[in-house]
Amino acid sequence: MTELRSTAEPATSTAATPSKKDSRRALVSSFLGSTVEYYDFLLYGAAAGLVFPVLFFPETMDPTVGAMLSFVILLAGYISRPIGGILFGHFGDRFGRKNVLFITLMMMGAVSVLIGLMPTYDAIGVAAPLTLVFLRIVQGLAVGGEWAGATLMAAEHVKEGRRGFAASIAVTGGPTGSVLATLVLGIFAGLPDEQFLSWGWRIPFLLSAVIVIIGLYLRYRVTESPDFAKAREKGEVHTGVPILRVLKKYPLSSLYGILAVAGPLFMQALLAVWAVPYVAAQGVVPRQDALYMLTFSSFVHIFAIPFFAWLSDRFGRRPVMLAGALISVALVFPMFALLNSGTYWGVALAFLVGNPIIQASMYGPIGAFLAEKFETQDRYTGVSLTFQLGSVLGAGTAPLMATWLMGLDNGAGTSNIAWYFIGLIVVGAIAVLLSKETLRRASKD
């Protein structure tokens, strides 16, 4: 079906083809930069269900309430992400991608170190959760500007026919950061509870400082996006407010992008934040082993995302994402059956079905799918806005929705979560179906 638009179709880039050296450097920089960003962001998510309810709320509080409040703070970071996307997208579309990405990385590193040094509720009382909220919001602002910028720096440094795969290299920073976060946290989660809650959980946050330094070095060396540089040379970079142009020129494109990403991101956050403490509470899989299961599935995820993106470079964004929607609907109930199997290897297989298959099948092409909806001068803001609002709808609400759905008195348990996920996927598939295919047009220009 043809996508309706309120203005002309997005123009494809006329930028000169960048050198192979610049392309490789941009890909590596985007990948490692996103890895650092999501290591910090997802480390909080992993700790939210294991540590923060115990340390940053009163001991007299019911553990379930503490977990819910911890997830609310988690949601605060997701809510601030669209604001960060608009803010950094504004500067990215006005002044270029490179400097903005340098700033977002520094912000993320600083916040992670501060969380690792934070005093607990016993030491400073209510100031502890309030400080955690503030730091989480700053984290969300930084990530809001990071995802689109890193994805565009990768995609805009290669030929148009390879943009799906190139964009996915930056996207794989998410599961790579998850691998590092859960692996490092898992190592320390093996400590006795007293040591883990006293100092063990802090080390992964403090270690991010080392990774940030490496990421900043790589970001400093990368060249500006050729697409943006060409647009600036031709005088096509507007001096107005990018968000107003995006809302006026691409209302339906933005809406379709938001709805398309919500389902895959719900599954990603569900496994990264909710599933580990849920599995550990069943007593079949120890906390540390559950984190390692998530780590291994995220490692496979790193290769699954580029695979589905590569397929989209060959067959189109829409066919691959629609096939991914069918895969997601078909496998979500088997995934939960494995998660509830009461067997060690059944739970491990559930993570493998959830991340590299269900989530990646629709998520792999998402970077190019969103980027190709917008013109160069509006692209940073457009991609940031659509992805981050979809992130709030999908990932940000996932732990809270899962906890609430599990608590319903209909006795359905995880089936409630599965049906909710299917609803998100169906809506996302309709949005993809209504979107125009951009691969063939981009490849010919």
Report on this structure:
The chain has helices spanning 20-48, 52-55, 63-95, 97-117, 121-124, 127-155, 163-171, 173-189, 193-200, 202-221, 226-233, 242-249, 251-282, 287-315, 317-339, 344-363, 366-371, 376-396, 398-406, 414-434, 439-444. It has a single domain, classed as Growth Hormone, Chain: A, CATH 1.20.1250. The longest helix has 33 residues, at 63-95. It is built from 21 helices and no strands. The protein has 445 residues and is mainly α. Helix 1 (20-48) packs antiparallel against helix 10 (202-221), helix 1 (20-48) packs across helix 13 (251-282) and helix 14 (287-315) packs antiparallel against helix 15. The radius of gyration is 21 Å and the shape is globular. 80% of the residues lie in helices and 0% in strands. It is a multi-pass membrane protein. Keywords: Cell membrane, Membrane, Transmembrane, Transmembrane helix, Transport. It comes from Microbacterium fluvii.
- Whole-Å distance between the termini? 22 Å
Q: In angstroms, what is the radius of gyration?
A: 21 Å
The CATH superfamily appears as MFS general substrate transporter like domains
The CATH architecture category equals: Up-down Bundle
Number of distinct beta strands: 0
Structurally, the number of domains stands at: 1
Helical percentage: over 70%
The biggest beta sheet reads: none
Secondary-structure element order, N to C: HHHHHHHHHHHHHHHHHHHHH
CATH fold assignment: Growth Hormone, Chain: A
Q: Which secondary-structure class do the elements indicate?
A: mainly alpha
What is the mean predicted local confidence, pLDDT?
84
Membrane topology: Multi-pass membrane protein
Pfam families: MFS_1
InterPro entries: MFS, MFS_dom, MFS_trans_sf
Transmembrane segments: 41-58, 64-88, 100-118, 124-144, 165-189, 201-220, 255-278, 290-311, 320-339, 345-371, 383-405, 417-434
